[in-house]
Design goal:
InterPro entries: AspA/AstE_fam, AstE_AspA_cat, Aste_AspA_hybrid_dom, SuccinylGlu_desuccinylase. This protein has seven helices and 16 strands. By secondary structure, it is α/β, with parallel strands linked by helices. The structure holds ligand LFNQLBSZ and zinc ion (ZN).
């Protein structure tokens, strides 16, 4: 296997490779760009015009997606997987990955779309570098752009695998992309309805990619991910990479559940209290009238929406950040 296939090993050891560019026997070029960043380019004659960004480890303790990208890279470096797409592999927060922590000082996934400029520290610099790497990668004209930012969740979930689809004024969510996600094993998609500061929102909003955050199960340490079944996603990614994806039928989206954001619950102060059991699962339903949270100056978050469910409840976030998302079921009538 080519040494650059060991991007994860290099990243975990904090090392730069001696050789920055290597070629497989089939002429696939692997190029190390920066810590945790590697570009794969097929020979020109095989290139099918897709630019695919695969990122993981934006949160350092979310190891199943990192292991998945590591397997894909090994297959490419051995010549077992023969790309027809250009690919950028990114391990988002190398220092947090080495320490097995979600982040060190600041959550990198709250520092995109301008946020890193309002703060300082190594994670702000990394978010800036990730934006630059993504922008350079997606700068070639007339190509299809796709970004999957892979995550696992802090808690268990009534729906294990789901995607979050960013929003941009004047742009419609794509039914074709939802069909692709369904084929990749996603059971639900959350359609955003306002701008956001996460990585997938940056590539969707600023770089015109079709972009998604994918949640694949519960976060566990390296080597303990047997409970996270990524086989459908892995198969689909290999097909996307090799240009062998079976045609997608988009009718009915095969039972894919769609949700939209009703409200983001923002923690405003240290007085914030979330009235949920510590072990509550994502997608748990909340009854109308339920007092979900309380904050400074007697402010209360009361459930008003019928069929509301909670995802990513987390009272430990910093003040000013999202402490949960209230979602409601929606239909496919506004898809492009
Ligand atoms: O389990 C949790 O509370 C968080 C899991 C996670 O890291 N999710 C992403 C979602 C990003 C998005 O909103 O698209 C995050 O919170 O950064
Ligand atoms: Zn995450």
């Amino acid at each position: 296997m080519l040494a650059l296939g060991k991007l994860l090993e290099l990243t975990l050891a904090g090392r730069e490779p001696a050789e920055k560019t290597q070629l497989t026997v089939e002429g696939v070029r692997m190029r190390w760009l920066s810590e945790g960043a590697l570009e794969v380019r097929p020979p020109e004659a095989r290139d099918n015009g897709l630019d695919l960004l695969l990122s993981a480890g934006i949160h350092g303790n979310e190891t199943a997606p990192i292991e998945l990208l590591d397997r894909l890279l090994h297959d490419i470096a051995r010549g077992d997987l023969k790309p027809r797409a250009r690919i950028l592999f990114l391990f988002g927060n190398p220092e947090a990955i080495r320490r097995g922590e979600r982040f060190i000082e600041q959550d990198v996934n709250r520092l995109f779309n301008g946020r890193h400029e309002q703060t300082s520290g190594s994670e702000a610099l990394r978010a800036c570098e990730l934006e630059r790497l993504a922008a350079t990668f997606f700068s070639l004209p007339d190509r299809n752009r796709l970004h999957y930012d892979l995550h696992t969740a802090i808690r268990g979930s009534k729906i294990e695998q789901f995607a979050l689809y960013p929003w941009k004024e004047g742009r419609q969510h794509s039914r074709q992309e939802l069909a692709r996600l369904r084929a990749a094993g996603m059971e639900a998609v959350l359609l955003q309805n306002k701008p956001s500061i996460v990585f997938s929102s940056y590539t969707y909003d600023k770089l015109d990619a079709e972009s998604f955050t994918l949640e694949l199960g519960k976060a566990r340490p390296f080597g303990q991910n047997d409970g996270v079944n990524v086989s459908l996603l892995e198969t689909r990614l290999k097909q996307i990479i090799e240009g062998t994806e079976p045609p997608m039928t988009d009718e009915g989206l095969d039972g894919l559940k769609l949700f939209s954001v009703a409200r983001e619950v923002i923690k405003h102060s240290d007085s914030f209290r979330l009235n949920l059991p510590a072990d509550i699962e994502n997608f748990s339903e909340l009854k109308v009238g339920y007092v979900l949270a309380e904050d400074i100056a007697n402010t209360r978050w009361v459930i008003e929406e019928k069929g509301a469910r909670i995802i990513f409840p987390n009272p430990k976030v910093k003040n000013g950040l999202r402490a949960g998302i209230l979602i409601v079921p929606t239909t496919d009538e506004n898809l492009a």
